[in-house]
Amino acid sequence: MTFRIGFHASHELHAPSRLLHFVRLAERVGFREAMCSDHFHPWTESQGQSGFAWSWLGAAMQATRMNFGVVTAPGQRYHPAILAQAAGTLLEMFPNRLWISAGSGEALNESITGDAWPSKPDRNERLKESIQVMRQLWTGMTVNHDSLVRVREAKLYTRPSSPPQVYVAALTETTARWAGTWADGLITTSCAREELKIKINAFRESAGDKPVLVQSAMSFGLTESAAIESAAKNWPLFGISLDQLADLPTPQAFQQHTHKPTDDEVKKTFRVSSSIQQHIDWIGSDLEAGASRVYLHHLGPDMETFIETFGAVVLPKFDR
User: Fold this and answer.
1) Cβ–Cβ contacts within 10 Å for residue 11, how many?
2) Using an 8 Å Cβ cutoff, are 12 and 301 in contact?
3) Which end of the chain is more exposed for a tag (fewer CB within 10 A), N or C?
């Protein structure tokens, strides 16, 4: 299986026009893969952005020849039929260049509908139903469904020649094991090699050799202090538990529950270093744990320097 390094476009941190500039630059220096978030709100007020991912994807896919993925949550903010239509339209224009990472979502984005925020088991079941509906629509079926999501006489007339791969976003071993029974692949976040291996092995118990993608939150700077400072400033979610991550409803609520971290907390949470070799070693540990692709989510002080430096030094060591 081909191992590649991709670029993560964070809609919470950068305006869509800047992200478009970044992916163009990333392609010029050798990146062939990119992914983006899909938020209605940023995590905190200080992050300050939340462009609409699906509008941006059309522009980014036209502006580059890269493959793209998007992390999204069908079932509440988005009806699954609408997501199926959005993905189908992009793939009709840009065949085989889009994958979807579907998750159970966060109240931060989904509760804007005013509907009740379901429990985690119900959100997981709603997610699975939503993906079932989307896959049926991509085949051309007329879909009726009446359970946690409701669909009436829906049919896609503009469809992709090949449906997108649907990966499931999982932060825990339990969710990874559940996803292995039905998803096309897994996407999870970076962590220590042994911890990552546990999640990957849980997924592959039933999934076999399906791809595993890792989103790596990292910060590269000319000095370690600059890398630490930028990561703490740009991703200020310290002290937030997984339950809070899913259940806090607004950027203001996140701001209230987080705290100013120590340097050690930042280094334990993110891959922070001014050493290129250290970043190479971290990516290597993901590869050894079984990852198929690693998407670099740069939280550092200078995006252009990061893209150009990693394109010149890091990509040639892994992309093949």
Assistant:
1) 22
2) no
3) C
The neighbouring-strand residues paired with 5 are 294
Give the tokens for residue 10: 């964070």
List all residues 6 or more positions away from 102 whose beta carbon is below 8 Å from its beta carbon: 72, 73, 74, 127, 130, 131, 166, 167, 168, 169
Token couple for 185: 């692949």
CATH numeric code, 4-318: 3.20.20.30
Q: Is the pTM of this model over 0.90?
A: yes
- 252: which 2 tokens? 């203001």
d(CA 164, CA 181): 18
DSSP string spanning 176-196? HHHHTTT-SEEEEE---HHHH
Contacts of 268 (CB under 8 A, 6+ apart): none
CA 231 to chain CA centroid, nearest Å: 18
Residue-by-residue pLDDT tens, the chain, 320 positions: 579 999 999 999 999 999 999 999 999 999 999 999 999 999 999 999 999 999 999 999 999 999 999 999 999 999 999 999 999 999 999 999 999 999 999 999 999 999 999 999 999 999 999 999 999 999 999 999 999 999 999 999 999 999 999 999 998 999 999 999 999 999 999 999 999 999 999 999 999 999 999 999 999 999 999 999 999 999 999 999 989 999 999 999 999 999 999 999 999 999 999 999 999 999 999 999 999 999 999 998 899 999 999 999 999 998 65
